[in-house]
Model the fold of this input.
Amino acid sequence: MLSFLPQLVVSGIATGMLYALMALSMTVGYRATTVVNFGHGDMLMIGAYASYVLVAGIGLPFGPAIVLAAALLFLLGAAAQRLLMQPIIGGPHLSLAMMALAVGYALRGVARIEWGNDVLKLPRAYSSGVFVLGPVVVTTDDLVISGVVLVLLAALFLVFNVTAVGKVIQAVFQTQRGAALVGINVKAFHATMWGAGAALGAIGGVLMALIVPLTPDIGVATLVRGFAAMTLGGFGSLQGAVIGGLLLGIMEKVLGFYVSTVFIDITAYLVTILVLLIRPKGLFGQHATLRI
Amino acid sequence: MRVGRRPYWLIPLLLLPVPLFLDQYQQYVANLILVYVPVAVGFNVVVGNLGLLAFSNVAFFGIGAYTAGILMLKLGLPWWVTVLPAGIMGGIAGATAAVPALRGVRLFYLAIMTLAFGELMRWVYIRWEPVTGGSFGMSVPEPSVLGWALDVEARKFYAFLVLVVLMIVLTDRLLRSRFGRAFVAIKGNEEAAAAMGIPTDRYILLGFAWGGFVVGIGGSMYAALVGHLSPSSFDLTELILQFAIIIVGGLGSLVGSVLGAALLTAAPEFFRDLPGFEELLFAVLIIVVILFLPRGLASLLGRVHPVFNDRYFRE
Amino acid sequence: MAALLELSDVTVRFGGLTAVDGVSFEVAAGEICALIGPNGAGKSTLFNAVAGNAAISSGRVLFRGDPIHRLAPHEISARGVRRTFQNGGLFGHLTALENALVGLHTQIESGFFHLLLGAGSSRRAETAATTRARELLALMEIEHVADHLAAELSGGQARMVEIVRALATDPPLLLLDEPAVGLAPPMRERLGEIIQRLARERGIGIVLIEHAIELVMSVSDRVIVLNYGRKVADGTPAEVRADKKVLEAYLGHA
Done:
């Protein structure tokens, strides 16, 4: 039985990469505005549909389609933040949560009206296959997903830690009031970061559409997993989001195999509930997340 | 300014002849509205009065519905006997959902946790197949009250009306008392509420449990109305409907709960064959109300005539 | 006579930071005791420790001879230690009258089930409490704003409502956290008179945190000076004024 473990971990890492990207894209928007985007899953879904239209409809090659979809979602995310969230940003948290949720539902409604509940399959730009590496089998999908996410992570790491812009962003994450004092346009910053989150989410959506049938409802399940990964890693922590996502992916596979397949569905819920009850800071949370 | 005791009891009296003017289908819609009144009233206690970001209302609703359905189908109990147990199970679910709040979890974290709780319950309905019927759901036997079969919609209307009036009256008493003031005090400033001698944890538990109880009663009505329960009735689309009802109606207002239920419950019926429009409509309504009418339609009605101003607090 | 409030060797630590360091003092009934000191001296933390909002690391807090430092804030409040808050702390969604009614919360005898059943006793308790709350507002001469939202009150009115709310249950001990902040001079004077009347006429023990030094010196029986969490002076206003350590605490020294 134990001999399956390496395979489970490898498959878990591949899905975990997706969760990591999801959690990271949510964290970027959250760190900028301290508002959780409950509509983020649907941004991801729209990103996947956008690339579907670009690839299957217009016939664009896969690479440019992803970039264009990400750009579109950047605009969508930034516009949603600037036009709908920013006017109520100091208001009750309920309004903020509901506004984001409502934006997500609107996107889902539009997707259902446009594409119905039909299951669409994103055409691949490569032939799918498997590689056998000793005891483990790796699919090309796993490789593509992991590869794209790793490249994105590396790029983000460089942006955040090496470039001047990234250092400014990190500084603004630390103190918003300070940012306003040194002349950074906080409103524009909020919108840009939500846009960046949506664009990252869109790439996640495209990758997800490689392995999951595309429907207007794929955003919800992913949202919950993104939350679980963020909570596990420590809400608001960038590296925590990545590690939380990877751990969640592995846990789903391992629990699903050794305990019961039902765990594949509910690991995310259980992780969210247990972590917030037992260790609300998560693994890498800098501050207690309670009663903020 | 406060208006004295209002003749609210006239409203149910005026509603008595309503089924006479409606056809079978319209009666069904009227009953659906009655189902959603307690669902909204209970939800509003937690979100509007207590001010906590709880996304678990659909779980209380589903647990109430399944409790009634299971007791009728598996134990052969008549519907009216199952109403109170459904409420109590809803209340227990409410108390359970309050646990993270009692541990100090607030705001978005509370929303995420209670969302997870709600989704977990839906998973239970699907997986606990021998009892719940799994994904295909379960058929609920014909409801009855004291041997009187609720075999036509009009009869259900009167049975539901009694429950709805009861839930509104009880919740109104609660909100007008020191309990209701304590809820709003906690919403405003928990530390100051505790400094006034209010055991805040106990009141948070009470608010959740009462909300869950009232919503659970609504669930038992739902089971009686639709005759078939399936997990897909308690998903996130249902959550947005319930949120839309209390936000569009007016947070923290009983009149708002009733108004929201009356206006929005019927809406999905118009979009049955148009997938997507329901979600879009609720989303747009919520967005517009949050931006332009934060206190909901109830505040408009209050401007028309102070009779409609049921003020437990004001924003 | 036993002290109303007795702090002995109270220490409060947050992580590695010692906010209050071995502070001891007593407050008698009818005594006005001011806590002063520079920002960050530990005054508010000490208040929070007495009111149950901050856990103490060592030492004891006794109220009427009983330890209260392990009790929850609402239990301490119910025993008769009531407080106001630095930044208002009124319930903005409620009216002035309703704020006073929340102040009376523990004295309204209406059980949950009695209330749901519409028992006459619940209704009578509610009516009696409302009458009482109106009397209390009248006593502070703010009955005309009874039905105004707390969020819409002026600074002075809000302060009066907060004091009414805290005093609603006739507590033996009142903790006032910077009550004069934001008040115009005439209003400050009135506040000073009210504080003195509460102590002299009703025998309420009062602990006062205040930066308005002239108010402190004119109303207090005793002034305690804190610096870096430690008590550096304790005496009558005149004694404290003459104390060199106090000057140092305020002016700072290397």
